[in-house]
Write a structure and sequence with these properties.
Elements lengths: L7 H4 L8 E6 L7 E4 L13 E6 L2 E10 L13 E2 L11 H10 L4 H8 L6 H4 E5 L1 H9 L4 H12 L2 E2 H8 L5 H9 L3 E5 L9 E8 L11 H13 L2 E2 H7 L3 H10 L3 E8 L18 H13 L5 E7 L5 H14 L3 E5 L3 H15 L3 E4 L5 H12 L5 E4 L11 E7 L16 H11 L3 E6 L4 H8 L4 E5 L10 E6 L15 H12 L3 E5 L8 E4 L16 E3 L4 E3 L6 E3 L12 E4 L3 H11 L5 E4 L9 H10 L5 E4 L12 E6 L13 H13 L10 E6 L5 H7 L3 H14 L7 E9 L2 H19 L2 H4 L2 E14 L2 E10 L2 H14 L1 H4 L4 E7 L6
Parallel strand pairs: 12-17, 12-18, 13-15, 13-16, 14-15, 16-17, 19-29, 20-27, 20-28, 26-27, 28-29
Antiparallel strand pairs: 1-2, 1-4, 3-4, 3-5, 6-7, 6-8, 9-10, 9-11, 21-25, 22-23, 23-24, 30-32, 30-33, 31-32
The structure holds adenosine-5'-diphosphate and zinc ion (2 copies).
One zinc ion (ZN) binds next to loops.
C-alpha cells in the first residue's frame, strides 16, 4: 500500500534538485503521488513544504515528501504552487509519518495534517505592501502582466493576500509573492491570528553601592537596604509585602545612588503566580540510579526505559535532572503529559529549573501561540518541549529523548480520526531517531511491564516516597454491610464520616472520588419500572440536579428534569444510582461549614473554571474536593491528607479486558494524592468487592502483585500483551443496513482466515453488536480481530481492506479501524 523510502534524509540539502516530487495529499487516499515541478517553482520546492496540486478535477493541498522515482506511468501533472516559505517539518519526520500511516492504516496526507498545528494558513497572515523598488519597477515596466497588476494595486493601498486575490479576481500563486518579495518589489508583514502573549516583565530592585554611607537615611529606607542586603535582588512586589511603603521609597533611593531598579522577565504559572527559579534537589539513592542509567544511554542509540515509581517518589525530579544533562549535550527533550492541567504543573517545574528554553504545545493555546511555539522548536531556539498527546509531533530535528509521564493513562489514546496511541508512538519516534524513550508511572500498564519482563524495556524503580514520607494507609470498607441502610449512610459510611470529620477539624484537606458525574445514574419509573433512557442511544439517562435535566453522557441528549415516564406517563420517578452531584449534596448536608467544591466535566465548562477549582485546593479555600477521575491524576497538593473512594467498583464490571487494569490504576492513583506533604495520608476505600485482586493490589499500592495475577488471565484468554488486536467499529443509521454490512465484513474475515497464513495466527470475534449498541442514533457493531503478532494481524487487515475495497465501501455504513483499541464499548 505505502512504499517505504528512507532516502529522504540523503536528499536533504540538495533539494534544489527536486524535479519530480512525491506528494502526500490530505485526502482519504492511501497512495502518495508523483508531480513535476515547473521551472519557475523549482527554487521553492522543498521537502516539508505544502504544494498546491491538481487532483482529479480539484486543486488540493499536498505535502512534499521528497524526490520521486516513480515516474513510469503515464502523464505526470505539474504542481501549481508552493504554499509555504519555510518547510513545516524536517525530513527526518517523514519515516515517522510513513510508519504511522502504515501501522494505523490511515492516509499519510491525513497523518501529516493531524501532526501539524492549526493556524499555518499563510493566506490569513500576510499583509502585502509595495516598496520603493517596486514603485520604480512599475515605471520601468519590465514586469509580467500579473506582477504589474499586483504592484499597481498595492501602490494604491497595501492589503492582505486574500483581499489582493479577491480584488484582482485571480489566484495569485504564493510562490510569485515570495519571488517578488525576494526581489524587493514588495514587503510582506506576517501577522498571526489569535491572542499573543508577550514576555511578562516585573520590576526588580537590587543594591548597587553597598559601601555608601546610610547615616542620613530614614528608618524605613534603612530597612529597605537591609532587606536588599539579605536578599540580593528582589521584586518590588515582594519588597512591598515586607515594607508596604517601599514602592514610594525606591525611586529616591535610586536617585541617591543606593539601588538600581530594573525590569526582569518573569514566568507565571497558570494560577498567575510568578515562578521562582529553583535548584536541583540532592537525589535519593534510587533517583540517582535512575538518572545515571538514563544519562548513560543518551546518545548511544535506541532504548526504552520504564520508570516505575510509587506516587510521590520524585519522578519529575528524575526527568528534570536527565533533561539538564541532555541540554548540556545539546540533545533535545520532549515531555508528554496526559492532561492539559498537568502540563501546567510540569511546566512550572521545568520553567523554575530551565527558564526560557521550554516550549509548550497543546490545544488550549491560540492559533498564534501554537504557531509561535512550533516555530521556536523548529528553529531550535528551545531544547525542551512539554505537551499533551499531539506534542508527539514537535518538530525537533535532533530529539534525543522522549519522556512519557503517567504512561498508563488512557488519554494518550486518540479515539477519533487517526486513532493513535501517543505512548506507543513516542517509542517509535525514539527508535527512528535513535534516541531514548523514558516511560514513567506509579501504575505502569500491563503492556509496558510485560516489556520489562521480556527485556524489551529497561526497568528503573523508585520504591519509596521522598523524605521518607510514608505511603498513605488504606482502609477498605465493605459496602455490602450498608446495602440496606437508607439515606446518605449507604455511601458515606461511618468510617468515612469519622475520617472526614477528623480531617476537617485538623484543618487538612480531603478528596472524595467517584467515577460518575451527575446526581443519579438510574432514574426509574416508580409505577411501571421502566428506566428513563436516551432516545438516541438506548442508554440510561443521568439526572443532573443543578441543570434540572436528565442527560445522556454519550450523545448529550437532554430531557427536562420534570419529565414523566415515557412508557406510562407517571410522574413518579425514583432516582437510583449515584453521581458526584449527589455526593456533593450529601457532604454539604453533613458538614454545612465545610468549603466544598466539585471537579468533573460538568463544572469545568467555562474557561479557567478548572484552574480556579484547583487553585481553591492549592490556596486552601476548599476543604473537600469531590470529583471524577479528574481528581485522580498526578496533582501534587501537600495538604491533602484524606482520600475517600466512594465506590471503587464502578469500572470493574465493564465488558472490557482492561477493566481490572483501569480500576487498579485509578484507585492506586487517587490514593496517591493523599499525604504528599509532611503529614501522612490515609485513604478510605469503599467497595462491594473487597476481595477482588484489583482492589487488594490497590490497597497495597503494589502494581507487581496486580501484574502477576492479571497476566495469568491475559495469557489464558490470549489478550494483549500475548496478542495484538484490531477492532473494526461499524456504525450506521439504518439498523438493517448496518447489520448486513457487519455480517458481510464478518464473512470476508472468515473467508480470509482460511488462508494458510492466517489459519493459526488470526482469531476473529464477532461480528457482534457493540456493548453500547446505539449512540447518537447510530447502530453499532464490532468485529474484534486478534493476531499472534502485529505482522500477522496487520497483514490480515491489509488484505481484508485492499482486496475488498469495492465490496467494503458503503455510503450508509462507516467502518473505523481501531488499531490497539482502548475503548471497547
Ligand atoms: P511523583 O511524580 O513521583 O509523584 P513528584 O516528582 O511530584 O513525585 O515529587 C513529589 C515531591 O517531592 C515534589 O514536591 C518534589 O519537589 C519533591 N522531591 C522530589 N525529589 C526530591 C528529593 N530528592 N529530595 C527532596 N524532595 C524531593
Ligand atoms: Zn412508567
Ligand atoms: Zn444519547
Amino acid at each position: 500500500m505505502i512504499q517505504r523510502k528512507e532516502k529522504e534524509i540523503m536528499c536533504q540539502g540538495k533539494s534544489a534538485c527536486l524535479k519530480y516530487i512525491e506528494v502526500a495529499i490530505a485526502l482519504p487516499v492511501y497512495n502518495t503521488f508523483t508531480y513535476r515541478v515547473p521551472e519557475n517553482l523549482s527554487f521553492f520546492a522543498k521537502i516539508g513544504k505544502r504544494a498546491l496540486v491538481p487532483f482529479g478535477r480539484r486543486r488540493v493541498t499536498g505535502y512534499i515528501l521528497g524526490p520521486s522515482e516513480d515516474m513510469d506511468h503515464g502523464e505526470i501533472k505539474l504542481i501549481l504552487d508552493i504554499l509555504d516559505e519555510t518547510p513545516l517539518f524536517h525530513s527526518s519526520m517523514i519515516p515517522f509519518f510513513r510508519w504511522i500511516a502504515d501501522y494505523y492504516m490511515y492516509p499519510i496526507g491525513e497523518v501529516i495534517k493531524n501532526a501539524l498545528p492549526g493556524g499555518l494558513n499563510l493566506y490569513d497572515f500576510v499583509d502585502v505592501a509595495i516598496t520603493e523598488k517596486g514603485k520604480n519597477a512599475l515605471i520601468k515596466d519590465n514586469l509580467t502582466p500579473l506582477q504589474n497588476e499586483i504592484l499597481c494595486h498595492l501602490k494604491l493601498k497595501s492589503c492582505g493576500l486574500k483581499t489582493l486575490c479577491a480584488k484582482l479576481k485571480s489566484q495569485i500563486p504564493n510562490s510569485l509573492i515570495q519571488a517578488m518579495e525576494k526581489q524587493n518589489l514588495i514587503i510582506c508583514k506576517r501577522e498571526l491570528k489569535g491572542k499573543r502573549t508577550g514576555p511578562k516583565m516585573e520590576r526588580y530592585v537590587s543594591m548597587i553601592n553597598p559601601g555608601i554611607s546610610t547615616d542620613k537615611l530614614s528608618a524605613q529606607k534603612m530597612q529597605i537596604l537591609h532587606v536588599l542586603r539579605d536578599e540580593g535582588e528582589i521584586s518590588v512586589k515582594k519588597l512591598a509585602e515586607i515594607i508596604p511603603t517601599a514602592t514610594r521609597l525606591i525611586k529616591p533611593l535610586e536617585k541617591a545612588g543606593y539601588i538600581s531598579i530594573f525590569n526582569k522577565r518573569t514566568y507565571r504559572d497558570p494560577f498567575g503566580e510568578s515562578i521562582i527559579p529553583d535548584n536541583p534537589y540532592n537525589l535519593t539513592k534510587e533517583q540517582e540510579k535512575a538518572v545515571s542509567t538514563v544519562i548513560d544511554l543518551l546518545g548511544k542509540g535506541f532504548a526504552t526505559c520504564l520508570l516505575a515509581g510509587v506516587t510521590g517518589s520524585g519522578k519529575t525530579e528524575v526527568y528534570l535532572q536527565i533533561a539538564a544533562e541532555a541540554i548540556k549535550r545539546k540533545i533535545s527533550v520532549l515531555i508528554l503529559v496526559p492532561e492539559i492541567v498537568l502540563i501546567s504543573q510540569m511546566e512550572r517545574r521545568f520553567r523554575a529549573r530551565f527558564g526560557d528554553c521550554v516550549a509548550l504545545l497543546h490545544s488550549r493555546l491560540s492559533a498564534g501561540e501554537q504557531y509561535d511555539q512550533w516555530m521556536r522548536i523548529a528553529r531550535q531556539e528551545v531544547r525542551i518541549a512539554i505537551g499533551a498527546r499531539s506534542a508527539l509531533f514537535a518538530p525537533f530535528a535532533d530529539m534525543g529523548i522522549v519522556i512519557v509521564d503517567e504512561e498508563h493513562d488512557t488519554s494518550y489514546k486518540q479515539e477519533t480520526g487517526l486513532c493513535y496511541n501517543a505512548r506507543d508512538l513516542a517509542i517509535v519516534r525514539a527508535k527512528l531517531m535513535n534516541g531514548v524513550a523514558l516511560l514513567g508511572s506509579a501504575t505502569p500498564s500491563i503492556q509496558s511491564y510485560y516489556n520489562v519482563k521480556t527485556k524489551k524495556f529497561i526497568e528503573l524503580t523508585l520504591t519509596k516516597r521522598v523524605e521518607k514520607r510514608p505511603l498513605p494507609e488504606i482502609t477498605v470498607v465493605d459496602l455490602r454491610k450498608t446495602r440496606d441502610v437508607r439515606g446518605i449512610g449507604y455511601f458515606i459510611t461511618s468510617e468515612l464520616y469519622k475520617a472526614l470529620k477528623q480531617t476537617l477539624s485538623r484543618g487538612e484537606q480531603t478528596i472524595l472520588f467517584l467515577n460518575r458525574r451527575g446526581f443519579a445514574g438510574f432514574p426509574v419509573c416508580a409505577s411501571c419500572g421502566a428506566s428513563l433512557t436516551c432516545k438516541n442511544c438506548d442508554i440510561s439517562l443521568t439526572l443532573h440536579q443543578k441543570a434540572n435535566a436528565y442527560k445522556c453522557h454519550y450523545c448529550g441528549y437532554s430531557l427536562a428534569g420534570t419529565s414523566n415516564c415515557s412508557k406510562c406517563g407517571s410522574s413518579k420517578i425514583k432516582l437510583l444510582g449515584l453521581g458526584t452531584e449527589k455526593v456533593e449534596e450529601a457532604v454539604k448536608h453533613l458538614f454545612p461549614d465545610a468549603r466544598v467544591a466539585r471537579l468533573d466535566r460538568d463544572t469545568i465548562g467555562k474557561k479557567h473554571a478548572m484552574l480556579s477549582i484547583l487553585k481553591g485546593i492549592k490556596d486552601h479555600t476548599t476543604d473537600i474536593l469531590i470529583g471524577t477521575q479528574m481528581v485522580a491524576k498526578g496533582h501534587d497538593f501537600p495538604n491533602i491528607t484524606l482520600v475517600g473512594i466512594i465506590c471503587a467498583d464502578l469500572s470493574l464490571n465493564f465488558p472490557d479486558f482492561r477493566a481490572g487494569e483501569r480500576t487498579f490504576q485509578l484507585l492506586a492513583q487517587v490514593s496517591g494524592r493523599a499525604g504528599r506533604g509532611t503529614v501522612p495520608g490515609r485513604v478510605i476505600l469503599q467497595t462491594y468487592n473487597p476481595d477482588h485482586f484489583s482492589i487488594e493490589a490497590a490497597k497495597n499500592q503494589d502494581f507487581k502483585a496486580f501484574y502477576n495475577k492479571e497476566i495469568v488471565f491475559r495469557k489464558a484468554l490470549n489478550y494483549p500483551p500475548f496478542s495484538r488486536i484490531i477492532l473494526l467499529k461499524i456504525s450506521g443509521k439504518d439498523i438493517k443496513k448496518t447489520q448486513r454490512y457487519a455480517m458481510d465484513v464478518g464473512d470476508l474475515c472468515s473467508e480470509l482466515k482460511n488462508n494458510n497464513r492466517f489459519v493459526k495466527t488470526v482469531e476473529i470475534l464477532g461480528p457482534i453488536t457493540a456493548p453500547l449498541p446505539r449512540i447518537a442514533k447510530h447502530f453499532r457493531w464490532q468485529i474484534l480481530i486478534k493476531g499472534l503478532s502485529a505482522e500477522h494481524l496487520h497483514g490480515f487487515v491489509h488484505q481484508l481492506l485492499v482486496k475488498n475495497r469495492e465490496r467494503i465501501s458503503s455510503r450508509d455504513v462507516k467502518m473505523v479501524i481501531d488499531v490497539d483499541p482502548f475503548f471497547m464499548m
